[in-house]
Amino acid sequence: MAELSISVTTKAASQIKAQLTKRSGSTPASGVRLGVKGGGCSGMSYVIEYCDQPRAKDKLFEVEGARVYVDPKSLIYLNGTTFDYVDTFQQKGFKFVNPQQKSECGCGESFSV
Amino acid sequence: MTALFEIAEPGNGRIKEACQTAAVGIDLGTTNSLVAIVLGDGRPQAVSIDEGSTLLPSVVHYGASGEPGSVIVGRAARRLAAQFPSDTIVSVKRFMGRGSADPETLRLSPYKFASGDSGSVVRFEVARGRKVNPVEVSAEILRALRSRAEERLGIKIQQAVITVPAYFDDAQRQATKEAGRLAGIEVLRLLNEPTAAALAYGLDKKSFGTFAVYDLGGGTFDISILKLVEGVFEVKAVGGDSALGGDDFDRALATLLLGHAARDPRSVRIAIDEAKAGKERLTTEAQTQVLGRTLTRAQLEEVIRPLIERTGPACRRALKDAGLTTNNKLDGVILVGGSTRVPAVRAFVRELFGLEPLADIDPDEVVALGAAVQADLLTSDSPQHDVLLLDVAPLSLGLETMGGLAEKLVQRNTTIPTNATQEFTTFADGQTGMDIHVVQGERELVQDCRSLARFTLGGIPPLPAGLARVAVTFQVDADGILSVTAREQLTGVSQSITVKPSHGLTDDEIERMLLSSIENAEADVQARMLIDNRVEAQRILKATETQLDANGDLLSNQERSTIEAGMADLRARMALTDHHAIKDAIDRLDHDSAEFAKRVMDRGIDRALKGRSVGEFEGEVGAHAAKAYSAHVEQTTLYEDK
Q1: Which end of chain A has less Cβ packing within 10 Å, N or C?
Q2: Reduced to 3 DSSP states, what percent helix, strand and coil does chain B have, rounded to the nearest 5?
Q3: SS (H, E, C) B248-280
């Protein structure tokens, strides 16, 4: 199998760093964990969590000092995804741009590949 | 729109609500049912629920008193089967989702069926004339499983993952869900039995590779090819026979034992019970006594060999579907189901796959254990439990298009949950409705597939043929249940249906549907081309006629007669069965009317320049332009609403 990977935009990286700094309990090793969970109306849902203790099999993506961990199972579904941060007048938050995603539900929180 | 996310603290995901009550895995089997649960140590275990055993025979006895307490489930019920053959329902799973006219109903069985309601669900007539349907009988089994497990474990059970054979169709899955509801259980998910078995093995052993799951239970045979990568399971192919199992071994042996003796419900019941006990003894013994005669293992094997061999073609086909050309790409074969204890079955599997099959986990319990693991996953938030499980659609799903063709939207063996959308257009000018006919099967023609549902989408704005656009979306959820939505793109009018047919597939039908799609592939394609060309011919004739009426003055008499001769020729050829002949005539007419179409177009442009709207003349363009139009919509036309 080819090497699976995701990319993290500069905006997302600086936002991750900013949020980690503001959060109490962060250590220099802290990062965020991106994942995919079963559940939600279209089959799978994205998950973003703080991560203080990465697991052995986690894959680390480091972009401009921001650490992003993905477990190998989720990586299969996230391969090729661009992780972005959106900040407009209407909305702000992190965004998954996943080329494997075939559909999503109305609320946009769950998807299928 | 895509939702935006905030970073959450670990374990505070908002997808699943924390749940206090326990969730269990239930194997609602044809012969035996089990309940298993994941307790504190994270390992699944089957619960003892019937006279010290983890197996609850799927037998329900309806007592003569007719009072609520008179329903008996399990071994106690099985002991009453010989005495009260028609009041004691054995192997009810075989009747799930089936109609009363189904061949299954007519097989050798000791039941009385309630007559009267034609075409609907089977109903058994039991003690005191009470009529019960298979869903109600299954609910009694589920109720017994639940209350006995609650008593044993001292906790409240509200949710369960219930397993079904991979081959269960929508009707059978719905019936299983209904039984769960009736028993007061929230069905978290229906899980395919072989997938559950793989989960039981995969989590414990962290297996990588490609595996076959050979599941020969009491009433069903399933073969599944699974791929395990980094703990993610994917079902690559499924196959099997929804009416083949150890019960058939018993029946075949009973038929031998009965010989020419008179057959009444009671003697049939006794013969089947004795045959079953004899078969089980022959797993370890070379010979045994059954109904006063000596039976050897060799005799048993001779009787059941044709039944065992029936599993072979399905296995080979599943391997092929999974893209495995040779057996040696398999890393293992998992045995599931009590019937895989029969030495002849193990020998057959060993020979078929060229591998020593795995049977480390009790083949009777493995499915329930896997279901318990899945129930635990679905109700727990901890990330180490987060395994994704992919299943597949056992048969292709599609809809009927013009001329009785089946257009497949979801291909067989597509991983579910899945979505598929295709755009369709109208066939006739001013058509305001579409009949959506949902079918299941592999064949090209609707008449050879199984009809699942029909509905009509009305309210399509009257437009020239080919301009309306209707997006039809098929959505198959994680339980394999299909919802179909049709939406007209201009007005947004939509209509949807959840497929819930009145009764299930007939005996062996899925197997037969698969086989016949392979056998008839060549003929099907020919038939499809013929119908495609006939539909196209009809469309082009109609469009040309319309234009001759409206713009006939653009033609000289000679031009007109050339076109009319082409039309007459095409009309005559439409009756032929040679699709090439029809295609030739279509091409000729197309060619002969090309100049005409150009003039019609020019006239349209002239009119548009004089102030008429573009929309008006688009609808007036002749056969040529209409074809160009439908090319960038889907070239598929649905039935005209009648």
Answers
A1: N
A2: 40, 25, 35
A3: HHHHHHHHHHHCCCCCCHHHHHHHHHHHHHHHH
For B564, list phi and psi in degrees, rounded to 5: -65, -35
Contact B427, B540 (CB under 8 A): no
Quick: pLDDT tens for B12-65.
Answer: 544 433 334 678 999 999 889 999 999 877 789 999 999 889 999 999 999 887
Judge if pTM exceeds 0.95: no
- B124 CB-near residues (< 8 Å, 6+ apart): B86, B89, B111, B112, B113, B114, B131, B132, B133, B134, B137
CB contact under 8 Å between B2 and A108, yes or no, is: yes
Tokens of B600: 């019609």
Q: Which domains does chain A have, with CATH numbers?
A: 7-21+28-107 (2.60.300.12)
Contact A112, A103 (CB under 8 A): yes
Provide the number of CB pairs (under 8 Å) joining chain A to chain B: 94
Cite the DSSP H helix spans in B25-127: 75-81, 103-106
What residues does B280 pair with on adjacent strands?
A: none
The 3-state DSSP class for residue B623 equals helix
Q: Which residues pair with B420 in a beta bridge?
A: B474
Instruction: Report the C-alpha gap between B251 and B279 in whole angstroms.
Output: 11
Round the average pLDDT of chain B to a whole number and report it: 79
| Residue A91 phi, psi dihedral angles, 5° rounding | -155, 155
Chain centre to alpha carbon of residue B376: 26
Q: In this structure, are residues B633 and B427 in contact, taking their beta carbons and an 8 Å threshold?
A: no
Give contacts of B 444-503 with A, CB under 8 A: 477-478
Q: Scan for tokens 């039309």, then name that residue.
A: B567
For B194-251, the pLDDT digits (tens) are 888 888 886 445 556 788 999 998 877 889 888 876 656 677 888 888 778 898 999 9
Q: Residues 18..37 of A with a Cβ closer than 8 Å to B: which?
A: 19, 32-33, 35-37
Domains of chain B: 22-244+310-390 (3.30.420.40), 245-309 (3.90.640.10), 392-506 (2.60.34.10), 522-632 (1.20.1270.10)
The pLDDT of B307-318, averaged and rounded, is 92
Q: How far apart are CA B71 and CA B144, in angstroms?
A: 10
CB atoms within 10 A of CB B120: 13
Paired with B35 in beta bridges are B26
What are the helix (H) ranges across B62-133? 75-81, 103-106
What confidence score (pLDDT) does residue B623 get? 32
ipTM of the complex: 0.73
* A72 in reach of chain B (CB within 8 A): yes
Say whether A88 sits in a helix, a strand or coil: coil
Q: Which of residues 6-25 of B touch A (CB under 8 A)?
A: 6-13, 15-16
Which of B242, B198, B244, B195 has its CA nearest to residue B358? B198
Q: Which residues pair with A95 in a beta bridge?
A: A84
* Residue pair B363/B409 in contact by the 8 Å Cβ criterion: no
Distance CA A63, CA B293 (A): 79
Q: How far apart are CA B640 and CA B430, in angstroms?
A: 10
Q: Quick one: which H or E segment has residue B608?
A: helix B594-609
Query: Residue B78 — φ and ψ, nearest 5°?
Result: -65, -35
